[in-house]
Amino acid sequence: MHLSEASPVDDQYVTCFNDCEDKCKSEGNGYSFCEMKCDTDCLAKQALGRLHEYLMQKTNKKKLKRRPHTAALLSRSKT
């Protein structure tokens, strides 16, 4: 069997899931409902976080690739 340490993303998922499940159960919902709801919600948050990181990396790379005259053109268009 191969075991690996949990990544920070997995730790974030576990924290999200446990918090969500506690809240869901305290609202009177059952185990299966809470498990499905929290799994869906936390996976969506995880995917959104990854997408945000990806887009930020792409945006930063584009800023680095801009030519010096691009900034001058952009400043002219604002006036």
UniProtKB/TrEMBL annotation:
InterPro entries registered for this protein in UniProt: Pollen_allergen_ole-e-6, Pollen_allergen_ole-e-6_sf
A Pfam family it matches: Ole_e_6
Disordered, as annotated region: 60-79
Compositional bias ranges of the Basic residues kind: 60-69
Gene3D superfamilies: Pollen allergen ole e 6
PANTHER family per record: MAJOR POLLEN ALLERGEN OLE E 6-LIKE
Listed name of the protein: Uncharacterized protein
Source organism (scientific name): Populus trichocarpa
